[in-house]
Amino acid sequence: MRRRLIIVFLVPLVLVLTVLGGAYAWSAARSVQQEFYAEQLGDLSYFVTGARQALLSGSTEVFDGEVQRYRELYGTRVVIVDRTGRPWAPADADPVFDSPDVDAQIKLALSGRRGELPQNALPWQFTDLSLVEPVFDGGDVIGAVVMSASVDVPRAEIGRQWLLIVTVAALVIAAGLLVVFRLAGWVLRPVRRLDQAMEAMERGDMEARIADDTGPAELHRMILMFNRMADEIERVVARQQEFALNASHELRNPLNALLLRVEVLAADLGETGAADVEKIREEGQRMTRILDTLLGFARGAVRESDFEDVDLSALLARRAEAWREVASRKDIVLQLDSARVRARVDEAIVESALDAVIDNAVKFSAEGGLIELSADRVDGGARISVRDHGPGLAPAELEQAADRFWRSPRNQNVRGSGLGLAIATDLLRSVGGRLEVASPEGGGLAVSFTLPAAEDR
Prior knowledge:
Structural class: alpha+beta
């Protein structure tokens, strides 16, 4: 986002500076060239007066001295040509004007006409200047003055001014970049703090808030609304935790009382029914473990450090045996087919998720149906699958199957609340797993868990 803001501010600034700087640079170059031409024309007019006197008097002594001093001072050469176009003064003049352009200007001047000034050009096209002015005596042309000037000085002046323009533009861009960085930081600071606060709340820090005086005034309302929302979420989570603690207290007491009565009943029955009593005791203890795990999950206290390597094939066999009696009431067969595979998870959470899925499978299977349970290895982890042969779901309904309280319109008369797969999804997510729902060939529904693999030993 910072990059986009910098581009939005900086690109127009660079474009404006380029246009204005280019226009000023061209204007400066033209100004230097015109000033140079004006100076040369003024000097040429002066030498035309001296050349007239020299030509009329036939003496070049005065003219030679002036031309020599001028050349030493400015590096510009001045020559008088006679009516035939041959160099006449200074005395050491030789026919060096062999340029076709200069020859054409001399001929034009000796015919009594003046040549046109050169047009403005770019500095690298700005070449040495040659000017020719006719010398009149009355109405007759008696010669011409040729001036050949170097453009090194004006070219250097143009380069200096252009360098100054580039330097100023660079400084303005640097200053603009600094201002944009500061402005972007000021504008985005509350957005970053909002992102950090939301991330903190996602990690479970319900006290994350943002200072009201952060950033521009336009964002203060958003910050205020976020803080209010965070307060409300904190209150809701606190009420949920209180409910979980109360539920723990209320459920644990009758569960403990039930287990005590089972122990008394076991003593009274002796060996008779001992196997059934043992199953009840195991289920009661399992309910205690599930209650502790679910309460920890509700408080966000499920930590990876509490995970352990779990034998999924053994876990699947235990839960299949526990559900076999319930399934037999509808003559449903639980078919177990699993390899020895392990995953690093919280065992009670996986058991709870598996129970929710098996409960759905039994609920929606027809009388005399088949439920297939399997566990196998997959890339990067392990998988548990539960496949029934019930009515299944349409492809468009699969994405909604794990939503809370969602039920297929075809199954509205079947008991249930539509929370089973949603709860299983949340439980698996807490241990780094995921739940997938698919419609296999042959009908029914296939629900699979993908879990983290156990550590290599």
